[in-house]
Design goal:
By secondary structure, this protein is an alpha/beta fold. 38% of the residues lie in helices and 15% in strands. It has helices at 30-43, 57-66, 87-101, 119-131, 145-154, 173-181, 201-210, 214-224, 236-242, 252-259, and strands at 8-10, 16-18, 22-23, 47-49, 75-80, 106-111, 135-141, 161-165, 185-189, 228-229. Strands 3-4-5-6-7-8-9-10 form an eight-stranded parallel β-sheet. Helix 7 packs across helix 8. The longest helix has 15 residues, at 87-101. It is globular and about 55 Å long. The protein starts with 7 loop residues before the first strand and ends in a 19-residue tail after the last helix. The record marks 79 as: Lowers pKa of active site Tyr. InterPro entries: AKR, Aldo/ket_reductase_CS, NAD(P)_OxRdtase_dom_sf, NADP_OxRdtase_dom.
């Protein structure tokens, strides 16, 4: 497939979601955060992924307004945190996020983690926000197949997106296949395994072959697997570099070689065993 920085993935309700976005986890310095987001929008990114936990929703809104872009040209995602889950609590958390962002709607709203007692009710609240046209798409984050199946049993509308930890060290093939069968787009967080793959010899060799960095090789691998991907960086040069992945294509053999790096190794928590307060 021919991809550009403006390429989008069509969600199952017809909404177009950019395939490459900026993740803003741990961007807690307001000035640094605004600079990073502004740089990304100038480079050509059209998606920003935040969460109430990240404490930078206000800066996301400021960056979008300062960019000179139309609000509808930037796809903004945020998430409801674990302690705010449940039906009524989620509706209140959404109002707070929207106020901090300074928007009158969101493109995508996600359950951050599947809190056992509340994640189904949390998704029901997200459905209501969708019905009321306060969000353009529904979704979840860090949900395994069994979490999704529990949601399916109660939901009127299936989640459109599942954002999960995914890298060449954690390829999540079975979950990706299940999502594909149910027309749920998969977004990769921690796509570079928190930098743990940047010295992997096979990726260094491929970088030399294509004239790219290992990070660019990995981001391209995500894109060629039909994943949407949200690498994070506060460094302007790296933000630009992470987007410079549309002038080459990995061969079938190289894609398979990267697939073979899988160790089912997480850098974050397992959704079936996570601390509520982490």
């Amino acid at each position: 497939m021919t991809l550009t920085l403006q390429s989008t993935k069509t969600l199952h309700n017809g909404i177009e979601m950019p395939r490459l976005g900026l993740g803003v986890y741990k961007m807690t310095n307001p000035e640094e955060a605004v600079k990073a987001m502004t740089t990304a929008l100038q480079v050509g990114y059209r998606a920003i992924d935040t969460a109430s936990l990240y404490a930078n929703e206000k800066e996301v809104g400021e960056s979008v307004r300062a960019s000179g872009l139309k609000r509808e040209d930037v796809f903004v995602t945020t998430k409801v945190w674990n302690s705010d889950q449940g039906y009524d609590q989620t509706l209140r958390a959404f109002e707070k996020s929207l106020e901090l962002l300074g928007f009158d709607y969101l493109d995508l709203y996600l359950t951050h983690w599947p809190v056992k007692e509340t994640f189904v009710d949390t998704y029901r609240a997200i459905e209501r926000l969708y019905e009321e046209k306060l969000i353009r798409a529904t979704g979840v984050s860090n949900h395994h197949q069994h979490h999704l199946e529990e949601i399916f049993a109660k939901a009127n509308v299936k989640p459109m997106v599942n954002q999960i930890e995914l890298s060449p060290r954690l390829t999540q093939y079975d979950l990706r296949s299940f999502c594909a069968d149910n027309k749920i787009a998969v977004t990769s967080w921690s796509p570079l395994a928190r930098g743990g793959l940047l010295n992997e010899p096979s990726l260094v060799r491929m970088g030399n072959k294509y004239g790219k960095t290992p990070a660019q090789i990995i981001i391209r691998w995500h894109l060629q697997h039909d994943l949407t991907v949200i690498p994070k960086s506060v460094t302007p040069e790296r933000i630009a570099s992470n987007a410079d992945v549309f002038d080459f294509e990995l061969s079938f053999e190289d894609m398979k070689n990267i697939d073979s790096l899988n160790l089912n190794e997480r850098t974050g928590a397992d959704p079936d065993n996570f601390s509520f307060d982490f």
